[in-house]
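Suppose you are handed a protein chain with no further information: no name, no annotation, nothing but its sequence. What can you learn? This example shows the usual starting point.
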Amino acid sequence: MQVTQEDGGRLNAFAKEPRMQVMEAGESGAGSSPLLLIGGGLLVLLLVAVAAWIS
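A reasonable first move is to predict its three-dimensional structure. Written in structure tokens, the prediction is:
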């Protein structure tokens, strides 16, 4: 962690950030899997159904 001293003697700590990665135009991210999108949609529908059943 990088620590700097401000006016008045206070210390301010900054976290070390990870390096940025540049993706090419054709690359897909890790979270864009169709299975993940379908599973998320089913989860939302299930939660809506449970909320409707409870109320």
